[in-house]
Amino acid sequence: MSEVTPVLLDEQLCFSIYSASKKFNHFYQSALAPFKLTYPQYIAMLALWEDAPLTVHQLGQRLELDSGTLTPLLKRLEKQGWVTRMRSRTDERQVMIHLTAMATAKRDEVYQRIGQCQTLLGMSDQEIQALMTDLVAVKNQLDEVSRQRLIDKKVNVQ
Amino acid sequence: MSEVTPVLLDEQLCFSIYSASKKFNHFYQSALAPFKLTYPQYIAMLALWEDAPLTVHQLGQRLELDSGTLTPLLKRLEKQGWVTRMRSRTDERQVMIHLTAMATAKRDEVYQRIGQCQTLLGMSDQEIQALMTDLVAVKNQLDEVSRQRLIDKKVNVQ
DNA sequence: AACAATTAAATTGTATACAATACTATTTGA
DNA sequence: TCAAATAGTATTGTATACAATTTAATTGTT
């Protein structure tokens, strides 16, 4: 008796975002091919160029990635000469990620290449800003809902 | 002498999208936990509920995924009883993906659960539509730029 | 000081993604 | 017609993601 509204793929915001994310990933990956950086490696480098040195934990908070993803990624970056990983002497649990001289030297070259990519989007800064604001709002709402669900669960358990 | 504009993580549209995509993925994954469907498995089911049967190739075009991703994913869906995979008799190269009776039976239950999730976003249909339109525009632009680059390459080769 | 609780990374296991290659079936062109 | 080209799927190899567990170091408490 009760009609259920069909869920159509093309009407799902999640699918637009999922799909756009993969396309961006691919786009930057090929733009970064001369540097042999993958997209996740690239955003790790962006964070480090802003704030190095960082602990694995700090980098993880910035990128929303855990050690299960970051540890192997950082080992690959180390192997390719972008970073060094060294245990903190004041707290042996922590691993500090430092930039190498090569990473510092190549920074502006990467900045320049990516800066060009941004303009290729053909969007004004205002348009990009507006889109980003919406996306952040969606993210925050998802966090909020997840948080409430978690509390509901806890309440139910008691 | 020439100043290079720094590339700041928080100003990158790609990072907003990447980050929102992961969050959506996680959000739906937990909403779908009762059905033991991952997010990519779920969108495959959405496409199949709309149009089954589909060949692997057709499904790949719909989801923008290739056989390297879909073959193992579909094998897992088959193992869990959602789909069957059978070689087409008219063209033995093709593998047709059919829904099982269980998949058809559970469709509305999934539709209902996901329909509820949409409302949790607290956005109007207009807002969601506007955001999706922007995202599609970004995707198209990325495709366009990639296409031009490809042509440039070919021209350069000649 | 002793020891439980906590924290930080690494590891393990599962599931995407995707480039590149392989394999088979079909189609096409000389 | 039959060999070359093409098409559809599967496989291999590399790189994320992330939950869950493990290990080691630090902190808090008594």
UniProtKB/TrEMBL annotation, chains A, B:
- Pfam families with a match to the protein in the record: Staph_reg_Sar_Rot
Going by the entry's taxonomy, the superkingdom of the source organism is recorded as Bacteria
Statement: the UniProt record of this protein carries the keyword Thylakoid: no
Segments traversing the membrane: none
Q: Which GO terms describe its molecular function?
A: DNA binding; DNA-binding transcription factor activity
Q: In the UniProt record, does the keyword Cytoplasm occur?
A: yes
Q: GO terms for CC? A: cytoplasm
- Please list the GO biological process terms of this entry: response to stress
Q: Which InterPro entries match?
A: HTH_MarR-typ (IPR000835), MarR/SlyA-like (IPR039422), Transc_reg_Sar_Rot_HTH (IPR055166), WH-like_DNA-bd_sf (IPR036388), WH_DNA-bd_sf (IPR036390)
Q: Which UniProt keywords apply?
A: Cytoplasm, DNA-binding, Transcription, Transcription regulation
Give the UniProt subcellular location, in the record's own words: Cytoplasm
The protein in question is named MarR family transcriptional regulator
Q: Which organism is it from?
A: Levilactobacillus suantsaii
